[in-house]
Amino acid sequence: MNNEDLIPRDKEDLDFIERLKNKSIIEIKEIIPRLLVWLQDGNWPQATPIMKYFQPHVNEIDSELVEILKGNDPSWKYHIINGLLKNSPAKLNENLIAVLRELAQNPSIADQEEEINLLSEEVLNDLE
C-alpha cells in the first residue's frame, strides 16, 4: 500500500481513515498538505477524522499550518484553529503561537468577518 491510499478519493470515501490511523506522522509527511485540504470545510465527512489524527501532531506539522493561517481562506483558517489548534493535547510551539497572535492583533477584513481574530484570542487565552 502506498500513501496515495491514505488520501480520500472523494467526499464519500471514509475507508482511508483506518489506513491513516495505522501510519505515523513521519510516514505520511509528503501527503500532509493534501490531507489538510480536506479541512477547508469542516462539514465534509473526512474533516473530523483527519482533525483527530492531526490534533496530537500540530507542532510536527506547524509549517503547513502556518502557511494556511497566513493565507487568504478564512474558512480554512477557522477549521484549522477551531478543529486542530484549540483541541490539540500538545502545547503549541512558538511558530503557531506567533501566527495566532498576528491573527488576533492584525486580522484582515475577511478574517474579522469569520471572527478569526476572536477565535485566535480564545486559543491564546486558553494557553495561559
From TrEMBL:
<dbReference type="Pfam" id="PF16804">
    <property type="entry name" value="DUF5071"/>
</dbReference>
<feature type="domain" description="DUF5071">
    <location>
        <begin position="6"/>
        <end position="124"/>
    </location>
</feature>
<dbReference type="InterPro" id="IPR031837">
    <property type="entry name" value="DUF5071"/>
</dbReference>
<dbReference type="InterPro" id="IPR038692">
    <property type="entry name" value="Cthe_2751_sf"/>
</dbReference>
<protein>
    <submittedName>
        <fullName>DUF5071 domain-containing protein</fullName>
    </submittedName>
</protein>
